Amino acid sequence: MTEIKRIVLDVLKPHKPSLIELSQRLSALKGVEGVNCSLDEVDQETETVKVTIEGSAIGYESVETVLRELGAVIHSVDEVAAGKRLIEDVRTLQDHRD
After folding, report:
1. Are 74 and 64 in contact (CB under 8 A)?
2. Max CA pair span of the chain
3. 38-61 per-position pLDDT tens digit
4. Where do the domains of the chain lie, and which CATH numbers do they carry?
5. Based on CB atoms within 10 Å of each CB, which residue in 33, 55, 59, 75 is the most buried?
6. Is the pLDDT of residue 73 over 90?
7. What CA–CA distance (Å, rounded) separates 13 from 74?
8. Which residues contact 93 (CB under 8 A, 6 or more apart)?
9. What is the model's pLDDT at position 98?
10. Pairing mode of beta strands 4-14, 32-42
11. Between helices 19-27 and 60-69, what is the axis angle to 10°?
């Protein structure tokens, strides 16, 4: 099976831990080379965060475990890239329609 190179998640987490701690914990996982966490929405008790992880061999189960340990849940998997290299999206004419 090919390795996951990028995964983008929609995550719901409590206010604590901070985005800094969340990013540090995820970036420490084997096969992870970079993590980007962007705050999308803040509620009274929770935060919605877009989590982008890139690496040579991301273990989805490990990501899920760390998030669960931090009290977070994955709402959706919004993007996955797997294979020998990353493929960036290509914009087409249909993407430019208003």
Report:
1. yes
2. 43
3. 999 999 999 999 999 999 999 999
4. 4-84 (3.30.70.1340)
5. 55
6. yes
7. 9
8. none
9. 57
10. unpaired
11. 150
Question: Contact 21/28 with Cβ under 8 angstroms?
Answer: no
DSSP string, 3-32: PEEEEEEEEEEES-S-HHHHHHHHHTSTTE
Say how many CA atoms lie within 13 Å of 44 toward its Cβ.
Answer: 0
Angstrom distance (rounded) from CA 56 to CA 9: 17
Encoded amino acid at 84, one letter? K
Within 10 angstroms of residue 74's Cβ, the number of other Cβ atoms is: 17
The answer to whether 34 touches 53, Cβ cutoff 8 Å, is yes
Let me know: does 48 contact 11? Beta carbons within 8 Å.
Answer: yes
Structure tokens at 46: 């929770």
Q: What six digits make up the tokens of 62? A: 């490990």
Does the predicted model carry a pTM greater than 0.90? no
Coil, helix or strand at residue 57:
strand
Decide if 89 contacts 53 (C-beta within 8 A).
Answer: no
